[in-house]
């Protein structure tokens, strides 16, 4: 039974699916995905078993950062469709029981945004103070540069007015000045505008950087937290049950603070965990995962980590030690073109050499740790990437629907596509596509659907339950119990590239039944002797522990 409180906490049990409108499905034959296109594919998204779609930016934009450079916050990029198309899409998603959140870019705008265009006309313009200006590029010295491959400074000279403007990302993305009350109000209006059109919340882009203060790193400042509390109060009052998901790529202590006291973000990407999953795999050692989970829990009751393996950006390695970064580059970025800034611009399947064992293992892991899994479009069909496309475009290529022309994404001539489809022989769309993989009972796609169905049956335990690690003698074994309201699941993972085994003291469950959750097979009951598992390389068990009926 779902009570009202549980319904309001839907995001704690949910699985999310990230989609760029541009890459999903082209309905009108111009080579570019659009809203009517993604609307036609909602049944497919539903068939995966996911609960909520996260749309990447679809607002009017010159697309110099794939839409994270917004020209007009109140309109839709014409090639994606009209506002009507957006409304229809939301209505249809809701009819199917899917929720939709969208990117909200607060920190910066496109330099083509009319606010910036006005602000740069002269120093006395009434929009001048909407941005952050300085006579010299020395202010806020020492603040790190994020896009180190393209930017040399966080300041760029505006030749027209002879002052520098502040930007944490590309120089064509001036930062808004959140010390200005008009800016704070305007962004609340943007939020109202889109929530009124039916969105269920936002994935908030680049949250740590809203305010600047001399002598600080200009990240995670108290003023930034205070503004998000202000936004949250406004949303709770005017649009109850909408959610905010933070992109705060920070060290664990700083990242956790974005949950606030249940008065900031309901959700927050677990950036600290993500790279450490891969490090655990390379080292065949459970410590990095166990250690980082211990550092990121507990979270406040009404909050949830977003658990992800990959997304539309490079696999970020900003918040790891130099040693950890070296391990990652050595294993996962053997070719220089695979790197971007402090990260690796590859998709999941190619990262792990398309190893089916590892792909299943990784998905099972993010579906069973505390939090809400967030998948990236195409990873369910083990899509390949194209490192010869610039920036992060190699992981944003057209979705592969079938083995038809253009992978069934669009009917245009192939040279007209916004980006080429993947034809590398190991990841060719003729094999890795939704239609073929749906038809093949043993495909990864069908396996993943089954995993998701299995997780959904116990969503509350996985999403809300506590975690207790079980220490094994073998460092390659990661084992933990998940509990919620009297129910218990045991998860056991073998991180090694070779088979392994583990014995566990489960005496406190003596007499309990053990059932493998994907197949429902019964294993021997737990007794007083150590409980024994053997595991194939990179494999796992999810076991429900069932209390015997009292005789
Ligand atoms: C976020 C987005 C990324 C974008 C950047 C600047 O990190 O995920 O894609 O380039 O913000 O907007
Ligand atoms: Ca189109």
Distance between the termini: 28 Å
Q: Judging from the principal axes of the Cα atoms, what is the shape?
A: globular
Number of strands: 24
Q: Can you list the ligands bound to this structure? A: alpha-D-glucopyranose, calcium ion
Largest sheet: 8 strands, parallel, barrel
Please give the share of residues in helix. Answer: 25-40%
Name its key features:
alpha/beta, 6-stranded antiparallel β-sheet, binds alpha-D-glucopyranose, 24 strands, single chain, binds calcium ion, 551 residues, 8-stranded parallel beta barrel, 19% strand
Structure overview:
This protein starts with a helix and ends in a 5-residue tail after the last strand. 28% of the residues lie in helices and 19% in strands. It is globular and about 80 Å long. The chain contains 17 helices and 24 strands. The strands form 6 sheets. An 8-stranded parallel beta barrel has the order 1-2-5-9-10-11-12-16. By secondary structure, it is α/β, with parallel strands linked by helices. The longest helix has 17 residues, at 222-238. Calcium ion (CA) binds at residues 26-28, 30, 32, 34.
